[in-house]
Write a structure and sequence with these properties.
17 helices, Rossmann fold, five-stranded parallel β-sheet, 2 domains, 13 strands, eight-stranded mixed β-sheet, 42% helix, alpha/beta, binds nicotinamide-adenine-dinucleotide
Length: 418
């Protein structure tokens, strides 16, 4: 069956971005070949399961696999379009690691055929789609690419960033507007047709470099704005005023909209992507650089605050480890950094509460800390540190904290019910 001119589409990298994309495409009736180097992921998907938690995803995967529209493999096969959604982390030195994109390029090169569309979805530094096209051209000199053959190219190349948020991925994948940046007009046109098979939002056309910069701009904008709130929280502490009240009142101004401070910035995107600009901008991004430093300094600030509240030998209960409320996502989480540093100081017993994670990853589980339920932590700890605004923690009553010293890094306990 042809959907929007496509029959067989391959998604390379079946993680938080690739699996929902593959499952949604398959549920639209396309034949989807999912490719991942992780056997664990491939086996789970072929059993009709998602290998991580995301609302609605399990049912979509189950349905697609049951209807034989989605299957997962470890090596690419022939398809009409290849959608690459592999990781693009940063190195210790804060420069982008494009090795996964290059490996994905090398893996699809042997199965590319004239007429194929290659889409990169991974968040990438400006110029990456051109780098991928150059790599593919080198590996397949028998095919032509847009950088050499323009509109006549055998292979179409597009960069189409993703902006979905964990916890609402399946909904946002369909509802959000989508930027399609092609290396030729035909690349834009054909890639847009693919996205229009499932996107209800607008599909907006541009070139590859602009699309790459748009994605980085979105996250750098968020990072800078959160840094303002985080810096404000330190300034307000100095002046002895409540930052949450200041923000609430300042936001009554019709053109002011300050975001909420917290223990830092986490997740796979906002804490990482601005570096892709800073690294390549050769000193032209001092504001973004400062914002990164402000946000990265916040976990240390929270540690110092809570240490100043605790007496030697006190037990500190840390509520939450995820980087975001009501998720199990621990990637780049500032809450984890706070816990690690508290354990490192070795001055207090540390108890952690994370209701959304069943098994803690070894680098956290191996620390000198105790895991507890919320009730146990409230009973055993003298000091309570709120790190994540999970619903369970927001629903506490004032009487549960009455005999405790506490530090609320999210401002959710300001109006606790009795
Ligand atoms: N997670 C998000 O919220 C989000 C949002 C927007 C953009 N992004 C971007 O999307 C990209 C993917 O992120 P993610 O969160 O899905 O990552 P992820 O780590 O959840 O998934 C990536 C998957 O790719 C697989 N993989 C790695 N190399 C491969 C290869 N050569 N061939 C096939 N599979 C390979 C891994 O095994 C993994 O399953 C990144 O660039 C990220 O920055 C993520």
């Amino acid at each position: 069956m042809s959907v929007g001119g496509f029959e067989v589409v391959s998604v390379i990298g079946l993680g938080y971005i690739g699996l929902p994309t593959a499952a949604v495409l398959a549920n639209r009736g396309l034949e989807v070949i999912g490719v991942d180097i992780s056997e664990r992921a491939v086996n789970a998907i072929n059993e009709g399961r998602a290998h991580f938690f995301e609302p609605e995803l399990e049912a979509l995967v189950h349905n697609a696999v049951n209807n034989k529209k989605l299957r997962a493999v470890t090596r690419p096969e022939f398809a009409q379009a290849f959608v690459i959604a592999v990781p693009t982390p940063i190195s210790e030195a804060k420069s982008p690691d494009l090795s996964y994109v290059k490996a994905a390029g090398a893996s699809i090169a042997p199965v590319l055929k004239s007429g194929n569309l290659v889409i990169l979805e991974s968040t990438s530094p400006v110029g990456t789609i051109e780098m991928l096209a150059a790599q593919l051209s080198e590996l397949r000199p028998d095919l032509t690419f847009p950088q050499d053959a323009g509109e006549e190219a055998d292979i179409l190349m597009a960069y189409c960033p993703e902006r979905i948020i964990p916890g609402r991925m399946v909904t946002e994948l369909v509802e959000n507007d989508r930027i399609v940046g092609g290396m030729s007009a035909r690349s834009v046109d054909v890639a847009s047709k693919l996205y229009k098979t499932f996107v209800r939002g607008d599909v907006v056309a541009t070139n590859g470099r602009t699309a790459e910069m748009v994605k980085l701009t979105e996250n750098a904008f968020r990072d800078v704005n959160i840094a303002f709130a985080n810096e404000l929280s330190k300034v307000c502490d100095k002046f002895g005023v409540d930052v949450w009240e200041v923000i609430e009142l300042a936001n009554h101004h019709p053109r002011v909209n300050i975001l909420q401070p917290g223990p830092g910035v986490g997740g796979h995107c906002i804490a990482v992507d601005p570096w892709f600009i800073i690294d390549a901008a050769e000193g032209q991004a001092p504001l973004m650089h400062a914002a990164r430093n402000v946000n990265d300094s916040k976990p240390g600030y929270v540690v110092e605050k809570v240490r100043s509240l605790a007496k030697p030998g006190d037990t500190i209960a840390c509520l939450g480890l995820a980087y975001k409320a009501n998720t199990d996502d621990l990637r780049e989480s500032p809450a984890v950094t706070v816990v690690e540093r508290l354990v490192e100081t070795n001055e207090h017993k540390v108890v952690v509460v994370e209701p959304n994670v069943e098994t803690l990853p070894p680098h956290i589980a191996g620390l000198n800390l105790t895991r507890a339920s919320l009730e146990e932590a409230l009973e055993s700890a003298q000091v309570i540190l709120l790190l994540v605004d999970h619903d369970e923690f927001k629903e506490l009553r004032a009487e549960q904290l009455v005999s405790k010293t506490y530090y609320d890094s999210r401002g959710v306990w300001r109006h606790l019910p009795a």
